[in-house]
Amino acid sequence: MKRKILMYIFSILLLVFTFYKNPFDKINDEEFREFNSSNSEALAVGGFIAAENNENKTGYGLGYWYDESGGVWDWGNSWNTYNKVMIKINNDEYTDSISNKTSAFLIPQNDYTNNKYQVGNKVTFINGESRTITSVKEYPDKIGEVGEYGIYLEVTVEGDDLLEVSMYGNIEDYVVTDKKGNVYPGGAFKEYVSQVGLQGKIYSIFADIFNYNNEVKIIRITNCIFLAIILIGICLLISQKYNQLLGTVFFVVFWLSPWIIKFAPSMYWVEFLWFLPMLIGLYCLINIDKKRIRIVCYIFIGLAIMLKSLCGYEYITNVMLGGIEFFLIEIILAMFKKDRKKLLSLLKTTFFLGISSIVGFMLALTVHSILRGNGDIITGLVRIIKEDAMRRTFSIGIQNSALNDIALESIEASVVSVVIKYCNFSTDIILGIPGNLFNLISFMPIFICVYNFYKRRKTNNFVVFYFVSLLVSASWFILGKGHSYIHTSLNFVMWYFGFVQFCIYIIIKQFINIMYERKESMGSN
């Protein structure tokens, strides 16, 4: 018993280390995490910067923070503020964004600074002197090609003398007041309205508890720990329900998949919530004859779907189907075996798990609708459907003239073409298995099933494992076609909701079966 517990602890620690450090795929990992950190996670960072500044009064937990820190993209400003870095221009005309020739200075242009730096407002310097803004105009950044840091505002104040740092201070020391003498806040929060952003609310608590700049590391490690525990739980339950080989295959794929690893620490994606319903569904399946456990599972799977939806709707089809994936497998197998009693029990439990999942999703959608509609649920729901759901699925009802080229392509693309895009991996499938083998690995189970049918071997479980997992994994490529067409840097992870695992298992199991038959045949001779 102690040995098993130690093995489980070791397995969890191994996953946590791999998820957090990713020692296997540094090149692809750095590219992805640079994108995820600078872009997606900036929404979380912006959220707790706003919370620290008491500027988040909308109820959303995620968003971008705008101030004078600078950066060519929205997310750059959030990270620059968080890291206490201010992008400044240095060239022949400006030193640290302060003019060498006139009483002017440069401020990055965004919604916040456009409002703050207006003609007639006043700037107060560290020496106590106040000057009125006399001119504000765009200043193209001359550091890099097409503006490495974006467009700046050239702000000129009254007076002819230069704004020497020794007398007037650095730009970050300036205090701006409007025409009525009101001091502008330190920044502005632009909420991310496509989801409630529950994770951002929770992270704000972390930001209050832990030392500044340590909370990001702590949150990422915490996400890795939760994911590791949930995935190990799934592997153990699969081993218990089916066999140890299948559980081991699931573990190895989770451990060595570059895509599972990439998302693991993300403050935005909260990957452990993707697989929590699968864990609950498996536990319910194993204990299907225990009424109390079933009821508890109905409640918890609804809560799990609600939490996932409050943290984002991406991949929700995979997450919800993942919760009943193994029930679907067992239902079809029971139909093959003509086990009416078992089939009825499975159908009943699957129905209630599905209803609970839908209720959890609807509760999250209701909360989101209230926020989106400023208290009006119907208005908010209409906005969510038109501005988010349609855009991420089939873009129904959206005018082509309002779309950019890639968005227009995503509407016109067929479902088949989208799925085909995801049959060409840019990474290993798992460590040691290159991505160009994906088509071979994904089609081999079909050949194996046809071969076994020809040989009159009963391997119904192979067929069911394959097609149910294919349905679950491909569901977002189909129902989330618009999102999938565009986000090929992200959505390959959908194959790991069972499809890759079952394909590898079927191939290995078939090889073992053939070797066993040959050994039996040689022994009988």
Key features of this structure:
525 residues; alpha+beta; five-stranded antiparallel β-sheet; 20 helices; 60% helix; elongated
Structure commentary:
The protein has 525 residues and is of the alpha+beta class. 60% of the residues lie in helices and 8% in strands. A hairpin with a 2-residue loop joins strand 2 (94-95) and strand 3. Helix 12 packs antiparallel against helix 13 (340-372). The longest helix has 33 residues, at 340-372. Mean pLDDT is 88; it is low at 143-147 and 397-403.
Blueprint of the fold:
Blueprint: H1 2-21, H2 26-52, E1 63-66, H3 74-82, E2 94-95, E3 98-99, E4 104-108, H4 111-116, E5 122-124, E6 130-140, E7 151-157, H5 165-168, E8 175-177, E9 188-191, H6 198-209, H7 215-241, H8 244-256, H9 258-263, H10 272-286, H11 291-310, H12 316-337, H13 340-372, H14 377-392, H15 405-412, H16 415-421, H17 438-454, H18 460-479, H19 481-486, H20 499-524
Antiparallel strand pairs: 1-9, 2-3, 4-7, 5-6, 5-8, 6-7
Helix pairs in contact: 1-7, 2-3, 2-6, 6-7, 7-8, 7-10, 8-20, 10-11, 10-12, 11-12, 11-13, 12-13, 12-18, 13-14, 17-20, 18-20
| Gyration radius, rounded | 28 Å
Q: Tell me what portion of residues adopts beta-strand conformation.
A: 5-15%
Lateral arrangement of strands in the main beta sheet? 4-7-6-5-8
The ordered string of helix (H) and strand (E) elements is HHEHEEEHEEEHEEHHHHHHHHHHHHHHH
Distance separating the two termini:
43 Å
Indicate the low-confidence ranges by residue numbers: 143-147, 397-403
